[in-house]
From TrEMBL:
The keyword Cell membrane applies. One of its GO terms (cellular component) is plasma membrane. It is an enzyme of class 1 (oxidoreductase). The chain crosses the membrane at residues 12-32, 38-59, 80-100, 106-130, 229-249. Keywords: Cell inner membrane, Cell membrane, Iron, Membrane, Metal-binding, Monooxygenase, Oxidoreductase, Transmembrane, Transmembrane helix. This is Alkane 1-monooxygenase 2. It comes from the Bacteria. InterPro entries: AlkB/XylM (IPR033885), FA_desaturase_dom (IPR005804). CDD domains: Alkane-hydroxylase. Its EC number is 1.14.15.3. The keyword Iron applies. Residues 109-338 form the Fatty acid desaturase domain.
Amino acid sequence: MTIVTLEEDRVRGPAAALPFWISLTMVPVIWFSAVQGGWWVLSVPVYAWGLYSVLDLVAGTEERNADPLTDRSQLGWYRAITLLWGPVQIATLFALIDYATRAPHLGVWELVGLFFGMGVVSGTIGINYAHELLHQKPKWDRWTADLLLASVLYSHFRSEHLLVHHRHVATPRDPATARYNEGFHRFYPRVLRQSLVSAWRAEAAMLARRGLPFWHIGNPFCRYGALQAAMLSMALLLGGWTGLGLFLVQAGTAIWQLELVNYVEHYGLTRRHLGGGRYEPVRPHHSWNSARKVSNWMLINLQRHSDHHYKPDRPFPLLQTYDEEEAPQLPAGYLAMTAAAMVPPLWRRMMNPRVRAWRRRHYPDIGDWSACRAASTPLRR
């Protein structure tokens, strides 16, 4: 596969950025679901997972790269959608709670289905945009990320992702790296438990290095707790106990969506242990990638994941794609692969041969992978 570079003028302006704004189409779909009720409450998952997986097949792949040296001042239309999405999602979420808890045409299961769909929106789009923003330097970007994560009660993701995942990816110290043959249903409870603990320990260790106790106001967990409490209070104020329950449904769905993506991104990939708790540097071949065009529009190039780990603060329109020799490629986009991950026998049939091929390509000298399968190599220092 030949990777070509786009000229800088192909990256600038609203027309070039427009495909990445398709996330906004989720908003009328969720409101259509709410107004129609009945089976229409499932419109969002059908739209997000079904339609976009089909469009991926039709549209094919995008294997061109923008010039990574493009001046960031030219990327305003790309950044705008990530900043705009924060207030749009939060306003939609709470307006939906206010409307749905007073709508006589929505029964219990319709309400649950509707807020499952809202969770698909806040997980597929919201957490992904928060992920983009928390890697950027402007304070407004990071505050928007905090608000989006608080709206799904997963604020600690910021600490875990920046301080743990990027440092320890593809080693046993990273909770978000799925092990070979570890089904999603085993991975999910493990990552929920371990990521919260690892995030807390990482922040406490940073405070300790500054001579401060973990309860110091500088611990971001204080901010996380306050923002999450505000979100829960707003849901309770607008919709009572029913509104609070529906808020929790969307939050749980969003977290499940995030961890499905985490599962896909690094499944079975490990860095070489060099001895004494040292590991090789992160390389492009330590992340699964997909060049599917439409799902990359929806996920703002999240599927160019190898380059994200190589340059974590690189804005999403400048992320580079790689060919099969440099980074492993998924057979479909993340949207289709997360559905496959919910069926472990199907997932193993699709992915285990690819993991074994990856091992032969990048580590032909390693014959015994049992320690990696058991995650029993020493923790990274």
